[in-house]
Specification:
alpha/beta, DNA polymerase, domain 1, 41% helix, globular, binds 2-phosphoglycolic acid, Phosphoglycolate phosphatase, metal-binding, carbohydrate metabolism, phosphoglycolate phosphatase activity
Length: 226
Amino acid sequence: MTVCMAPCPIVFDLDGTLIDSAPDIHASVNAVLLQQDVAPLSLDRIRSFVGGGVEVLWTKIVAATGIEPGLQRDLIAAFMARYHDATRLTRLFPGAFEALGVLADRGHPLGICTNKPLGPTVAVLDHFGIRQLFGIVIAGDSLPQKKPDPAPLRAALQGLGADPDTPKALYVGDSEFDAACAAAVPVPFLIYSRGYRLKPLEQLPHRAAFDDFSILPRLVEDEAMA
Ligand SMILES: O=C(O)COP(=O)(O)O
């Protein structure tokens, strides 16, 4: 069966897929914890909390630190005040910029579907000069639902002109949230294996995995021929 005739729409996750943003998230979280006289959390710990959006992140931080749960809303506000344009410690994963350029040049409509809020999403896309590559950006606060609910990815596909009920398209992500979301649409899922997932790769449903962005354009071509 032909899954995707080139150039098919391709939607990307952001944190842990295109960008390594955990260091900035970690720095902003610990600055807020410091204000509360709470001991800092390690980068690995914070990275393991990323994927479900800001509320999930802070629910996990509150559980891990024993902070009074009633403070969570205020802590999220303090975090967002720091994180909304934090890009200093964030990096594009190696080869991601070039792979996006190749796919865009081949005519693939590109989109973003992330659980990160829209403010920091746009800030980071602008920071790396890649915002104009994406025809649609669906962020964690764009809709009432977040991944793994399929609604955000369906909205991104629609925004790129794909019929989400017969999506000849691809989703590229790194996490449990992304795999479950792609399966729920359903749309073929390509997983970046150097991202932030917690489980072994084989436990996440995916069409193909890659650990180097230089092979992504070929994987996309393979899907077109499948
Ligand atoms: O900010 C998060 O928690 C997750 O963002 P992502 O969907 O881009 O991985």
